[in-house]
Amino acid sequence: MKQNSKWEIDFSFFEIKGRKEFADRLKLNSKKSSKALRLFFINLHSEAKETRDASKIIVKFVRNGKLSKQEEKELRLQVYDLLKIMGIGVPFVMIPGSTILILFLMKIAEKRGINILPSSFSKNKINIETIKNDFKKENTKKNI
């Protein structure tokens, strides 16, 4: 399997298996998929770091019994993020077809001004919108 860069993959192995149409579809969307995957892992790394920092704050509280206002705020936000992750993750694992359900819930929450994504994923909303716009531009050019 040939790789053009760190995140872009050559999907020609599907052609070998007789799935040329599927391989072509993947190639058309490979840049968008690569950007989305890269952004997801960046956000996931950020969320893991925030959780690690929150665990250090908890250990500090257990040892000393005191927290600064800033530490208390950071801990509260991270606990909210963990609850959001559990709220999204549990249905994803437990309910068949929940990938559609999660997208539906995210749209409804967005319309009502509720943020159900963890803070690390919300910070990069501009990047997500950029990916969507790039994809729309690419598809518009191909349809012309």
Describe what this molecule looks like in 3D.
The chain is mainly α. It has one domain (12-143). It is built from seven helices and no strands. It has helices spanning 12-16, 20-28, 30-64, 69-94, 98-111, 119-123, 125-143. The relative contact order is 0.10. The model has no long low-confidence stretch (mean pLDDT 75).
Give a brief rundown of this model.
With about 140 residues, the chain is mainly α.
Topology, pairings included?
Blueprint: H1 12-16, H2 20-28, H3 30-64, H4 69-94, H5 98-111, H6 119-123, H7 125-143
User: Given the helix and strand composition, which structural class is it?
Assistant: mainly alpha
- Summarize the biggest pleated sheet: none
Beta fraction: under 5%
Poorly predicted runs are: none
Q: Into which percent range does the helicity of residues fall? A: over 70%
Average pLDDT value?
A: 75
Q: Can you write the helix and strand succession as a string?
A: HHHHHHH
CA-based gyration radius: 20 Å
Number of helices: 7
Distance between the termini: 32 Å
The best one-word shape is: elongated
The domain count comes to: 1
* Secondary structure: number of strands: 0
Task: Spell out the key features of this protein.
mainly alpha; 144 residues; 78% helix
